[in-house]
Structure formats: C-alpha cells, structure tokens
Design brief:
The protein is α/β, with parallel strands linked by helices and 316 residues long. The chain is 41% helix and 15% strand.
Length: 316
C-alpha cells in the first residue's frame, strides 16, 4: 500500500510540474463577467436575479404563447448552443433559454451545489420568475437529465419533453472529454483553473461534433471565453463529482410525459445505444437518430434536428 501511495504521489507531482511548465504558454486567468457581457450577453439577453444568483436568460417570441419552449444546455455549454432552434422558432413560439449555474454568464452557484436536484430547484424558480406555469421542456446532455428529472418532480408543468443526447444512464470514463478528465485530477485544481489552451477547447468541440469540419473559430471563441468567466472552471470541478454516475437511471421508466428522443448517430460522449434505452423505458416515446451528427445535434445542424421536433410538437 505504501508503494502505491508513493507512486501515486510521484505521478501527481510529475503531472503538476508538467502542467505548470505547459501553463506558462497557456496562462488564462479568470475574466470578470462584465468583460464578457458586451460580446456574449447583448440583446436579446437579459439577467434575472434569483436570490444571490444573476441568471443570463433569453426570452424571445410572443408572450401570449400558452406553452413556451424551454431549452436547457449541457455541461460546459451555454444558452448560445440553442441559437439555431431559437432563431427558427421565435417567430411563432415563445422560446426561453438560460445559462445554468456554473456555466456561461450566469457563473457559479453561491452554495456550490451542482446536483441534479439543485438544478431542478433552480429551473422551477426561474420559470416562476418568468411566470411560466407549463411548458415544452427540451434538454441536451446534462440539460436532458435536468429535463426528465424536472418532468418527474413537476409533471403538471411539462406538457411535452424533448431529450437530446440526454444523460441519465451510466457512461464509461473513456467517453468523458479530455478537458473534463484533466479538471477532475486531484492535485491539479489550481492549474486547471488558471491554465486553458485554446487548442484544448477546439479539440474538445471537434470530439463532440460528428463532423469536426463544422467547428469554426467563432464557435471555439465562444466556448473558450465563457469557460474563462470568473468561477466557471472551479464550478466545473465541483460539477464533475456527479458526472456519469447514472444513480437515478431506474427512475426514467417513471416518466409519463409525452417524450421525443433525439440523438446524434455519431455521438462519442453518450452512445446512441442510450437513445434506445430511453425509448424502451419511457412508455409511448418516439425516437429519432440523426446519422452523422454528434453529441450536440441541435447546435451542429439546427434545421435537421429541429425538423423532428416540429413534427413532434405538431402531433396531437
């Protein structure tokens, strides 16, 4: 046991030394939210105060819509990931998106609680603040798990559910993006909150897209700069403690909300086989697998992924 502990200490020390030397070339301190708002928080963005949390929100389209569409992003993303869907829908529907606590311009939760239960409470409070009683709820990855858990906790508030490459079942460690794995290494916390190579962000995005050629400079800029928002990298370390556990997977079969399951056929983060598991467990659900698209099909190809959603929303 002593030899194992010594070997582990040597590995961590070596990794830390390497990271510090490497970090000299990629030093990236936190940026205050005020410096990021002009580029990433301009109109139609606004901020909603929920206690000590100032939430970045976009609320677009006709306010008279009796059933708004609420969009919830995944880990390390932001409300901007839904721009394609929001742009196509806001002429006819009220569309609401937000930066979850720990991500985007919203930034870290004061209590540092990034459990799914905490996110469900957050979403309920935000919908109350926006005076949304009932909605169509869509979520990707982490946002997908928040969505189905919210539908279980508040079934009267969700008319329809759209799960886009949603989390919920256990996933293998090898599917976790490299940047997240680095952030979770014990002893490297300080380094990973002060160092961020832009190339690592680009590589991460290319890994979640089915077609890496769709990853352009502006997309990398967005993910890179919003990761630097003060407190977000520390929040990611806190969030990763919950990643991929699948502790509540047995509850998925209790979902009774009409559900559409949309999946990228080339998803390397959460395998397409998980789409079939959701379809099997949620009675009466529909499943659409989009060949060639990756973990964020709504962002990679908004029009193709939204077509299935429109059919679902128009169905009786």
């Amino acid at each position: 046991m002593k030899r194992i502990l010594v070997a582990a200490a040597v590995v961590i020390a070596a990794a830390a030394a390497l990271a510090v030397g490497w970090g000299a070339l990629h030093w990236a301190p936190d940026r205050p939210v005020e410096a990021l708002v002009p580029r990433w928080g301009a109109s139609p963005s606004r901020f909603v105060d929920l206690g000590a949390l100032r939430v970045h929100v976009r609320d677009e389209g006709p306010r008279a819509d009796p059933l708004p569409i609420v969009l919830v992003h995944g880990t390390s993303a932001s409300l901007h990931t839904w721009e394609g869907w929001a742009g196509a829908l806001r002429g006819e529907r009220r569309v609401i998106s937000m930066d979850l606590p720990g991500f985007g311009l919203t930034g870290p939760a004061p209590e540092r609680d990034y459990s799914i239960a905490a996110y469900v409470r957050f979403l309920a409070a935000l919908l109350d603040a926006l005076e949304v009683r009932r909605c169509v709820l869509a979520g990707n990855s982490l946002g997908g798990e928040i969505a189905w858990q919210f539908a279980l906790a508040h079934p009267d508030r969700v008319a329809r559910l759209v799960l886009v490459d949603a989390a919920g079942y256990p996933v293998g460690e090898r599917s976790v993006p490299l940047a997240w794995r680095l952030a979770a290494i014990p002893g490297l916390g300080w380094v990973t909150t002060h160092v961020l190579p832009r190339g690592l962000v680009q590589a991460g995005l290319e890994g979640v897209y089915g077609d890496p050629g769709r990853v352009g400079p502006e997309l990398v800029d967005r993910y890179y700069e919003l990761s630097l928002r003060a407190g977000n990298r520390a929040a990611l370390q806190d969030r990763l403690r919950y990643l991929g556990a699948g502790a509540d997977a047995t509850r998925i079969a209790s979902v009774r909300t009409p559900t559409l399951i949309v999946w990228g056929g080339a998803d390397r983060v959460i395998p397409p086989a998980h789409a079939g598991r959701f379809a099997h467990d949620i009675a009466g659900s529909r499943q659409v697998v989009l060949d060639g698209l990756g973990h964020v099909p709504h962002e990679e190809d908004p029009s193709r992924s939204l077509a299935a959603v429109r059919d679902f929303l128009d169905a009786p």
